[in-house]
Amino acid sequence: MLTIKQITEDKEGVIRGLEKKHFQGAREAVEQVIAFDNKRKAAQAELDALNQQVKLLSKSIGSLMKEGKKDEAEQAKQQVADIKQQSKALEDAMKQADDDKRQVLYTIPNVPYDLVPEGRTAEDNLVVKTGGHDTVLPENALPHWELAKKYNLIDFDLGVKISGAGFPVYIGAGARLQRALINFFLDEARKAGYTEIMPPTVVNQASGYGTGQLPDKEGQMYHCELDDLYLIPTAEVPVTNIYRDVILREDELPIKNCAYTQCFRREAGSYGKDVRGLNRLHEFSKIEIVRIDKPEHSAQSHQEMLEHVEGLLQKLELPYRILRLCGGDMSFTAAICYDFEVYSEAQKRWLEVSSVSNFDTYQANRLQCRYRDANKKIQLCHTLNGSALALPRIVAALLEDFQTPEGIRIPKALQPYMGCDMIK
Question: In a structure prediction context, what are the per-residue pLDDT tens digits for the chain, which is 424 residues long?
Fold first, then answer.
């Protein structure tokens, strides 16, 4: 969440940033936060004054008793008792004002960087780079859901039988392709210096609030109500929460973690052609890269993460493009975000396969993820993460773009993991 310092030192700048994200009621929310903070500060000032009175009265009681002024000493004791009652009420008021302020802050998204373009929807995102080769498909090329059936790779109907729509069953070479991609992505992350984590795939409410999925995305998360636990929508949640309420040493930064997990998203309201086959699932596999860094180094970390994801797509020989997201299409928590998309020649559309975001101090403030700098001052870290990569649409693009009359060709980088160069 935003810090009170950000808001009070540059209120109008924060409001302009929130309006770039098309956050309704930006000014009202910011004014609410300031009002609650002023209420807390006023109570704190009054409490400090009362504590000073108690200190002076307590000091006088001993003197009065020595002087034999017992009645006056008893009056002073009564005053101290009365002040302590007032102090308790002020402490309660401070806590309430602080809680009220936090609840409003939870509803306010991160402020985008100046580099983020104006815009409301995906149509306004800025294409900053394209790469890869043009795909030439054979006549009567098939979309991936038909290829999956033809080669017995994925059974969507069986998934419906077992769980419901959006839970495919991978079979034979399809399952092997999933495993090959997972191992390839993890090995590439390890080569790039990321430490592999195997986290839980259910998290508590504090973890959801820590990375900003709660309360913003509560309706999109699967909730185990009896235990009050949530199935993770991404490994970002458990991995970043490792550093909740932690003070790191400066020489530990940047921290670089990666994790493979299953991810779960309700995708409420999704319908139409965009959800066909692997395009949008309720459960899917993903490798996530996460960094914790110093503010002055986080832009470089972000660039290194972008280069890492781009390198994966180049090794997979897929046509891709990189987009800088506009304010209206960014996530609630991101300060800046780049999406990677691969082109599906069979579907004639771009498929998003990764988002790589810098959250500045927004998540770190929620998490209280901090570090001690060279001057022994404790500061908030910057947090970053990205998909490297999400599997469903990568699989869709591989099946569609590498189909041949003889079968589906396997990119050279994946062949050692698959044990073959073609699915026939």
Answer: 999 999 999 999 999 999 999 999 999 999 999 999 999 999 999 998 988 887 787 778 777 777 777 777 777 778 878 888 888 989 999 999 999 999 999 999 999 999 999 999 999 999 999 999 888 888 889 999 999 999 999 999 999 999 999 999 999 999 999 999 999 999 999 999 999 999 999 999 999 999 999 998 888 999 999 999 999 999 999 999 999 999 999 999 999 999 999 999 998 655 555 678 999 999 999 999 999 999 999 999 999 999 999 999 999 999 999 999 999 999 999 999 999 999 998 899 999 999 999 999 999 999 999 999 999 999 999 999 999 999 999 999 999 999 999 999 999 999 999 999 999 9
Q: What is the reported pTM?
A: 0.92
Cα–Cα dist 17/6, whole Å: 12
Helix or strand (DSSP H, E) at 238: helix 236-241
Contacts of residue 293, defined as CB under 8 A and 6 or more positions apart, other chains included, come to 253, 254, 255, 301, 381, 382, 383, 384
Three-class SS of residue 163? coil
- E-assigned strand segments in 362-410: 369-372, 378-380, 382-390, 403-404, 407-409
Cα separation, 354 vs 162, in Å, equals 28
Rounded to whole angstroms, the Cα distance separating 391 from 295 reads: 31
**Distance, CA of 165 to CA of 66 (rounded, Å):** 83
Quickly tell me which residue has 């891709």 as its tokens: 320
CA torsion sign, 227 to 365 to 371 to 260?
A: positive
